[in-house]
Structure formats: C-alpha cells, structure tokens
C-alpha cells in the first residue's frame, strides 16, 4: 500500500494529518501535536505559558495551558473549572472583594461587616440572625423563627402536622405508625413495598430472607440475574446485567449487539458469529477456520491465499494473483517503467523513483525536507540526533553539552550536585547559587534557607518563605512566600490569600475549612474527608463513610429525592407519592394526598383520603365529612363524637364527658361515670368503684398484672410469675425445696411423700380406697357417717346402725322402740308389741304367760306357742328343755343362748346370745362383740378399734394413739399420730411440719391466705370454714354448695342456679 497521509509540521510519524505519533528532533509530543522543546530549566514569567512563553494567560491567572484554561491563580484568586475567580471570605458564595460578600452559602447571611454569619439553629435560609425565611427538616416556620416540630418518627411537618414519615414508618392521618417487622418503606402496617437488607417482599410483607440470588430485596438481584415475579431469574448466556427482555452489560470477551451478547471478533475481523468465529474480514484478509488470514502481496480482496479478487494500487491482476505494475519506490505509474508519483522516502527523476538519503522521509532532488524519527534536519540533510542535554551535535556525535553536563564517550553526563560547569563529575569549574567552589567541588556556602550570602554565617537574602533575621533566615508565617517578619507577610504562596499581613489558606474544591491548601478539616456535602482531602461520595449521596476493611465508600445519607438502601442511594418516589414506576412517575399517593397529572396534591384540610382537593371520602381524626364532601373540625382531644360546633358528645375509652370536655378516668380505668369507674383496663379489676391490679393465676399479691410478689399455697415465685411446687407440697422456694406439705403427704428431705388421709383404712400411693368403720369414701377423703350409723356408703345411705337405732327402708337409722315393742311413735312410745307380749295401759309391752303367743293381759291368752297346748285357759308346755317352739318331731326354735342340735337345744359358746352352732355365733351377750372368727370378744373402750379386753386396747381410732393399753388424743389438728408429739397425718387444712406438728395451710384453690387461714377462694370455689369447696356445676362463683352467684358463659342465673 502507498502512504498518502501528510503529517503535520515537525511530526515524524502520524496516524492522521492531525494526530502525530512521534516528533522530529527539538520538538516534544503533547496530545498528538509536536511543540517546540524548551531548553533545560526553561520557565515563563507569571501570566504567560507555552514552550516559547507566547501564550498570554487570562486575567488573574499565574500559569495556564492555554489562554482560556488556567492552571494556577494569582494571590487573592481561586481556581474554579480552569478560571480564576475572586477569592471570597469563608462561607461567601459571590463577592466583589475578598472582604465584601454579595451572596452567602446556604445557611448563612450577609452581616454588617460584609461577611457571612451562620443562621440560627434549624434555619435553612435567613436574612439575619433573627429573621428566618425557610427551615431545615424537622422544624417549622413561626414568626420568622424555626421551631422544632417533627417528633418521633416524623420527617417533615408543617405547624406540628406531619406530612412525611421517617424510614420504617407510614403516615396515618397526621401520625406516623411503624411499618411491619423488617419493612423499610410501607403504605400501611400491612402493605410493605421495600424491605430491610436480608428480607424480601412476599405478599406485601417481608419474608425472613431473600430468595436464591436475591441481593438485598426481591427488587434487586445479584449479577447475572433479573427480577421476575418476585424471584431472581438467570440472564441470558454471557450476560452479567439484564432486564427481562434485553442484556445491558456483557461478560468479558463479549460485546452487546441488539440486546444480545456476541463474542468479540478476533484481529482484522469485521463480523463474527456467537462463538467468535469470523465470517467477514477487513480488506487484505479472508476468513479461514474462523480467523482472518492475510491475502497475498498486492491483494486487497481475496477468497483464499491464491484467489485474489482486487489488487492494490501499483499492482495488476494476473490470473488469480496480483503482480507489481510499477518499479520499486513508485506509488503511481503508467506501464511498468513510467512512474508519476513516488512512495515516501523516494523522489521522482525522469519517471523513475530514487531513494532519499539515510534518515530522510521526504526529499527533493537536491535536499531533504523531512527527517525520520531519530534524525534532525540541518541544511537539507538529515543527521543523527543527539540526546536532549547535548548543546552541539554533528551526525549524532555530541561535541558540547548543556550547562551542568560534560562529554563522556560522546554522551552528556551530569556534573556533581551544585555544579553548573565541569570537565568530569569530579572536576567542577563553576558552582550554582548557594554553593561555592572548593578543590574542584561545589559545597553549600550559605546557611540553611539562605539564598545569597557573603559567608556561611552572614545571609543577605533568604529563600522563598524565609526572611533575614540576625544574619540568618527565619521562617515566615504559614503559607507566606515573602515576609519582613514572622508576623508581617507581603506575598503569599499559591493556595493562600493575604489578609491583614497574614496568609489564609485557600481550601481545595469542596473543602469548607482547612489548615493549608492540602490539609482539609471539613468537606462540603457529598464529600468525605479522607487523608486530609475531600473524596466524592458515590451517586446521590450527601454523606458517606469508608466500609471497614476495604476502600469502598458506603452512603449514610442521601440527597432529597433518594432513599438509602444497603449503603447506596436509590431514586425515591416524588414527594407524597406512595408507589411509583421505574421512571419515578407516581402511581399512587400517601394518605392525605390525591394523584393529579402524576403529581400528589394535598387533600383539603382534615381529609385523609380524597379524589380531589374539594371531594373528600375519609376525614382525619378530629374531623368529620360534611354535605359538600369537605371535612369540618370534629372533636376535641379524647372525644369520640361531637356536634357540628366541635362540642364533644361522647368521649373515647378512658375518658368521661364533663361540660363538653373529656376528662381522664382514674388510673387503669377504661370506662367511668361522673363519680366512679365501671370498667377497668385489662389486668385490673373493679373493687369499690376503683381499679386495683388483678394478679396473675395463683398469685396472692403483685405489683402489676404481670409481676407477682407473693404466690398462693403450692406455688413459688420465679421471674415474677408463680410456678407450681412439687406434688403434695404446700410451701416451697423451688420445685426441689419444700418446707410444708399438704394433707395426705409426709415431709422428708424437703420433698412430700403421699400417705393415707385421715380416717383411711386402706390406701395406695396416698390414694384412699377404703375408710375405717364409721367413715365413708368421698372422693379421695374419708367423711364421717351420720351419728346413728356405724357403716355407710354416703352421708345419706347407712348400711349398719349403732345400738339403739335400726336401719329404716330409706337407708337411714331410726331410734329403736322399747323392748319387745314392734312399732312406736317418734317419741319412742310403743303402739304395738311383738308376739308373746301385750301392750299395758302405760304403753309398755308386758310378756304373756309362758307358752302364750297372743294375749290381752297376763292371764288371758288366746293363742299358745308351738310346743304348748291350751288347757283350762292356760298354755301348758309340750317341748323339750330350752326349746321355744316345737312340733311333734322335735324342737324347731330354741331359747336365746341355744341352738337346735338333733331336734334338741344345745347351748351356744361363751358370751354368745344367738348362734347356729357351738362355734358360729351371730349375736353376742351384752358387753361383748362379735369377732371376725365368729366368737364373742369383750367390747373395746371408747375410741378403741381392737382390744384384748375392755381395758386393754391394741389399735385406736384416727385422732388417737395407744398408750399403756388405752387410747389418748393426738395433738391438735392431727388425724394420725404415733405419740403426743409426732403426727404423721394432719386434718384437712393442715400439713405436717418438720417438727412433727400440724401447721395450718391453705388449699391450692385458696388465693388469699394468712397464717394458714383462707379468706378467699379461686373462681368456681366457695369458702367453708377454712376449706375451699367446688361450686355447683356451670357456676363461676357461689356462696355455698347450693347457691350460685355467677354463671359460666352460655348459662343464666335463675334463683341461685345456673341453667
């Protein structure tokens, strides 16, 4: 190919006529342009720039890169976007001089001295320290002053009425209510739109964790995934960021094309398939096996290395290949020998191209006009260039060096430090400023910081930043370059401003306060102070911080219109908007606003929901809707309903109406009348028109409804609540430490062991199954039979009566009639006698004569007994001895104390009154009782259950113990004892103490107990003596076992019963 591009002046090689790649000798490359190279240590005076100092900088500019782009400013000016602006005083936005401000930064005002003073607290803009015109967030304007108004969760409010809530809260009327758990942005307590980090919105609530590949919420996925129906779905292959319809960013090695990632083509390839295989190459190349291969020499278009379809200039087609048409060095020719244009490095002579001299790229027949890189043009000839520090060079060989250098092996080497002329690095002939020549070497002549001196001890001029004091150099003040003393500066360093003979640091851009131009102490909003400099916070961030353990910046506060999410600022919905689309267009407003042209406008005063500012559908608390669909002021504080004038007619819970105002009820009262409380708050109960704390279950006394201070019997306090003692324990400090047992239990090693209850004859594991004689089983306790009954199954059903009583058909014991009386009245007076007796005039049954069965007097018999015959009005015996009744075959009934034995009467055993044999007695004589073996033993003394004689007892009844053959009473309240001081079973209401005595206890159904005396039972029980007994069925409270005072739910109280 021929080179037709002409490079710009002083350019040795270029990619276009305007973009240079390398420069000729004596020029240097700068942004694609060749500039004249300054000599060593060349600099321009202030206000000028350029290699030849020809560029005039703009006004107040000390140095510049062009006439319109300033690099450093003169004293009193500061650099801003390449322009020097008058440097205003602190917090001044614009000024006419360094001391006269015309406008201040936000939050400041112009004071009487022309400077800027800060506005009062909470004020965003002001005209003076007492007149505020706009307030900061959380304040409202009142009489030109800002008053803190937004409290709690409110972010923005006006005159104490909240209009916008903080993150995690939503506006309900004029109040901010908390969003649901883990919700960051919500429209109500049940509808969440954005969750906290680690949570995702599922069915308007925040799920515990994000779904797979979810980043911080189900609206933000990790790289390579996009949100689809609340979950993260895969992007297409080789895509790292996408929407549901197109890829946005491709993986390395792939390029985006029509929303799809295609593999980046190889070198010289114009188009390739998804696999990266080339299908179309640049001119001069053809596609082979997915890569681009060069065509043959001179060919610009081919289908293979041997099949050329188009030849380059200077070549002609020959079959399927290209052959040179012009001679060497020729660019354009006619025929193979007549050249009209030569290639670079050649010149035309008689239609032929002749090569330029070495190092020349453009020449004529007589001279070179442009040299190649590494050569310099001199009098039409290209000579090899020497290094930059060479002053005189001949064909690449240096003969003379710049000051500060010497020739060594045709090259320039630097002289030693401080030396300006030398013949070698050890032989100096002249020294620079601040040095003196000594033994062919340069040594520092002046003292430290001294620029000019007559000797090492006497300085006459100091370096910049120092002044002469006592023949030595002392430092000027901070930021000062020229001064007459440490406190009087005349010229400041760049970055400082002269003010009252001292230099004040010009802070760097975005730095509010600094100690020097490079040491910032406070940055502007949106920047972070890091290593004394202001670093820009990311995105829409106003304040940020460095993430621990990395260099990443995390946002902590966002600009208005953005929300903080996981350290980044995301675009928020417009003001008062509840929901909006991805473009930020509002779709729904918060309560108190309506949507109009994608903007939320306020409803009318007092309105929570409306369709326009004149049509309200729901009014706020304290307002009511009127006939014109507006909201009128409704009720005062704590008023539930009121008239059109705002006068209250009904108060809210916990308040009572008085003269149109709602006054608070007494403490813990939710409903009250003018004089007393009628309904208490939960956890409190009504007692004498006052609300007293209602203790938790099993608690006797408490400080509040949830904190017990003293538990009832059978319970102990644990973390303010009553926990049950172990089984059978009445008083304990923990489940393993009992000090007093209930009845039926014995205390042993701080534990209660079940024993038989009082009057129990047989029990298993403390449960009674059979009572002693005279008692019956009632539940698990033994109750005493009626007084006249010796054996019973209940309090009303007797099986065996005591002597002197008989068992009636009703199951009760009636008093015995007199001897031989068959029937008698309630007073015991006999009305009819048994057979063999007659009723005398004194109502006493008198025996008939011997052998007479029926008689009307002792001498008048009408019927004789069996074994007797009626002879001469008298009954004459015909039976054997001791036979009461007999027949012709023998005795059929014997007299008492005898039994029939072979038709005759034999005597019963000792002390037996009635028997069936000599060893089977059925009734004993007086003073004796029937034993289990069918014999008669002596009758035991009082309270004795078994005895060997009437005076020697071996087993006593409950409440007594055997002592020397007699029964003695147990200690007070003891049911079973082994001695007068050792009780094993106590009576109901008492428990065995560690001393062996019985101490009064309350049952577990008692809720108010003092020293063992119960004064109040649990609900469903009534107090009988010192025992809590269960109320009748379906009764929640009662005064006795038959009188109910309150019923369970679904039952009604009628005449003391629940039906």
Folded structure, characterized:
The chain is mostly beta strands and 1059 residues long. Among the domains are: 116 residues, no CATH class; 42 residues, no CATH class; 44 residues, Hormone Receptor, Insulin-like Growth Factor Receptor 1, Chain A, domain 2 (Hormone Receptor, Insulin-like Growth Factor Receptor 1, Chain A domain 2, Ribbon), CATH 2.10.220.10; 60 residues, no CATH class; 41 residues, Hormone Receptor, Insulin-like Growth Factor Receptor 1, Chain A, domain 2 (Hormone Receptor, Insulin-like Growth Factor Receptor 1, Chain A domain 2). Helices cover 0% and strands 55% of the residues. The protein contains no helices and 138 strands. Strands 1-2 form a two-stranded antiparallel sheet. The protein has a two-stranded antiparallel ribbon with strand order 3-4. It has a two-stranded antiparallel sheet with strand order 5-6. A hairpin with a 2-residue loop joins strand 89 and strand 90. The radius of gyration is 62 Å and the shape is elongated. It starts with 10 loop residues before the first strand and ends with a strand.
Structural class of the helix and strand makeup? mainly beta
Separation, N- and C-terminal Cα atoms: 118 Å
Rg is 62 Å
Multimer state? single chain
Count the DSSP helices. Answer: 0
Which regions are unreliable across 5 or more consecutive residues at pLDDT < 50? 39-43
Strands of the widest sheet, in order across it, are: 1-2
Q: How confident overall, as mean pLDDT?
A: 80
Strand content: over 45%
Number of strands: 138
Shape: elongated
Question: Into which percent range does the helicity of residues fall?
Answer: under 10%
**Biggest β-sheet strands, sense, barrel:** 2 strands, antiparallel
């Amino acid at each position: 190919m021929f080179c037709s591009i002409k490079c710009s002046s002083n350019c040795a090689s270029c990619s276009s006529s305007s973009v240079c790649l390398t420069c000729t000798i004596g020029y240097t490359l700068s942004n694609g342009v060749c500039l004249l190279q300054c000599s060593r240590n060349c600099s321009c005076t202030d206000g000028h720039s350029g290699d030849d100092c020809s560029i005039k900088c703009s006004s107040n500019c000390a140095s510049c890169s062009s006439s319109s782009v300033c690099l450093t400013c003169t004293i009193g000016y500061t650099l801003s976007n390449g322009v020097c602006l008058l440097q205003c005083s602190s917090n001044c936005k614009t000024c006419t001089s360094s001391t006269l401000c015309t406008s201040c930064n936000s939050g400041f005002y112009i004071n009487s001295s022309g400077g800027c003073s800060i506005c009062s607290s909470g004020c965003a803009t002001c005209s003076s320290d007492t007149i505020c015109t706009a307030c900061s967030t959380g304040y409202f304007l009142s009489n030109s002053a800002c008053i803190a108004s937004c409290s709690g969760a409110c972010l923005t409010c006006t005159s104490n009425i909240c209009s916008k809530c903080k993150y995690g809260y939503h506006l309900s009327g004029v109040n901010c209510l908390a969003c649901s758990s883990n919700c960051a942005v919500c429209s109500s307590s049940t509808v969440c739109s954005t969750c906290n980090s680690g949570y995702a919105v599922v069915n308007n609530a925040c799920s515990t964790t994000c779904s797979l590949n979810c980043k911080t919420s189900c609206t933000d996925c990790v790289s390579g995934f996009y949100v689809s129906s609340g979950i993260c779905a895969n992007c297409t292959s080789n895509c790292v960021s996408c929407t549901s319809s197109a890829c946005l960013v491709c993986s390395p090695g792939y390029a985006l094309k029509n929303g799809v990632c295609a593999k980046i083509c190889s070198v010289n390839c114009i188009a390739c398939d998804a696999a990266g295989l080339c299908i179309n190459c640049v001119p001069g190349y053809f596609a082979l096996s997915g890569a681009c291969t060069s065509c043959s020499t001179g060919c610009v278009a081919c289908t293979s290395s041997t099949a050329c379809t188009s030849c380059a200039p200077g070549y002609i087609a020959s079959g399927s290949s290209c052959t040179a048409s012009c001679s060497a060095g020729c660019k354009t020719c006619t025929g193979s020998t007549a050249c009209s244009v030569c290639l670079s490095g050649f010149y035309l002579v008689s239609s032929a191209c002749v090569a330029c001299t070495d190092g020349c790229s453009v020449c004529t027949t007589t001279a070179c006009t442009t040299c190649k890189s590494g050569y310099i043009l001199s009098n039409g000839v290209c000579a090899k260039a020497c290094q930059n520090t060479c002053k005189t060079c001949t064909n690449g060989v240096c003969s003379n060096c710049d000051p500060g250098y010497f020739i060594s092996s045709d090259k320039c080497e630097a002289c030693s430090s401080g030396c300006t002329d030398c013949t070698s690095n050890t032989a100096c002939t002249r020294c620079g400023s601040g040095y003196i020549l000594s033994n062919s070497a340069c040594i520092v002549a002046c003292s430290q910081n001294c620029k000019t001196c007559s000797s090492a001890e006497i300085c006459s001029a100091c370096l910049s930043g120092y002044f002469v004091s006592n023949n030595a150099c002392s430092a000027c003040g901070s930021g000062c370059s020229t001064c007459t003393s440490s406190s009087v500066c005349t010229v400041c360093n760049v970055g400082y401003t002269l003010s009252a003979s001292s230099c004040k640091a010009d802070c760097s851009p975005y730095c509010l306060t600094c100690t020097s131009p490079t040491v910032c102490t406070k940055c502007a909003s949106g920047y972070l102070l890091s290593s004394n400099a202001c670093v820009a916070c990311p995105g829409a961030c106003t304040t940020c911080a460095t993430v621990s353990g990395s260099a990443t910046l995390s946002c902590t506060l966002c600009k208005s219109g953005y929300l903080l999410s996981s350290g980044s600022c995301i675009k928020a919905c417009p003001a008062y908007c509840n929901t909006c689309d991805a473009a930020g267009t509002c779709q729904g407003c918060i309560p108190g606003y309506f949507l109009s042209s994608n903007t939320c406008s306020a409803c009318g005063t007092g309105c929570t929901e409306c369709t326009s500012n004149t049509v309200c559908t729901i009014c706020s608390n304290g307002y009511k809707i009127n006939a014109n669909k507006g909201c009128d002021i409704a009720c005062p504080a704590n008023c539930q309903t009121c008239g059109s004038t705002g006068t209250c007619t009904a108060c809210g819970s916990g308040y009572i109406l008085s003269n149109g105002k709602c006054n608070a009820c007494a403490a813990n009262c939710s409903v009250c009348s003018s004089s007393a409380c009628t309904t208490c708050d939960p956890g409190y109960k009504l007692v004498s028109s006052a609300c007293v704390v209602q203790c938790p279950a099993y608690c006797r006394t408490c400080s509040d409804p949830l904190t017990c201070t003293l538990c009832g019997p059978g319970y102990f306090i644990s973390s303010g609540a009553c926990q049950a003692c172990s089984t059978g324990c009445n008083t304990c400090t923990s489940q393993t430490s009992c000090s007093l047992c209930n009845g039926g239990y014995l205390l042993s090693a701080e534990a209660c062991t079940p024993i038989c209850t009082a009057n129990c004859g047989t029990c298993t594991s403390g449960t009674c199954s059979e009572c002693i004689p005279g008692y019956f089983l009632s539940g698990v306790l033994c109750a005493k039979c009626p007084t006249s009954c010796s054996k019973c199954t209940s309090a009303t059903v007797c099986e065996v009566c005591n002597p002197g009583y008989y068992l009636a058909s009703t199951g009760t014991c009636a008093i015995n009639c007199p001897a031989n009386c068959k029937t008698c009245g309630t007073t015991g007076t006999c009305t009819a006698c048994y057979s063999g007796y007659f009723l005398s005039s004194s109502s006493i049954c008198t025996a008939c004569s011997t052998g007479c069965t029926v008689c009307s007097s002792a001498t008048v018999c009408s019927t004789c007994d069996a074994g007797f015959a009626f002879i001469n009005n008298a009954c004459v015996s015909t039976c054997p001895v001791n036979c009461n009744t007999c027949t012709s075959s023998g005795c059929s009934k014997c007299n008492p104390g005898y039994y029939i034995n072979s038709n005759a009467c034999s005597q019963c055993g000792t002390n037996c009154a009635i028997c069936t044999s000599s060893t089977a007695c059925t009734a004993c004589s007086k003073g004796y009782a029937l034993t289990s073996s069918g014999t008669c033993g002596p009758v035991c003394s009082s309270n004795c259950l078994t005895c060997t004689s009437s005076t020697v007892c071996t087993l006593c009844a409950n409440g007594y113990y055997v002592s020397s053959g007699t029964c003695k009473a147990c200690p007070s309240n003891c049911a079973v004892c082994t001695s007068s001081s050792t009780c094993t079973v106590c009576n109901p209401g008492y428990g065995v103490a560690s001393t062996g005595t019985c101490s009064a206890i309350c049952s577990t159904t008692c809720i108010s107990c003092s020293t063992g005396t119960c004064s109040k039972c649990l609900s469903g029980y009534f107090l009988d003596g010192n025992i809590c007994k269960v109320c009748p069925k379906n009764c929640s409270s009662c005064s006795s076992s038959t009188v109910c005072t309150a019923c369970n739910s679904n039952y009604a109280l009628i005449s003391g019963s629940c039906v």
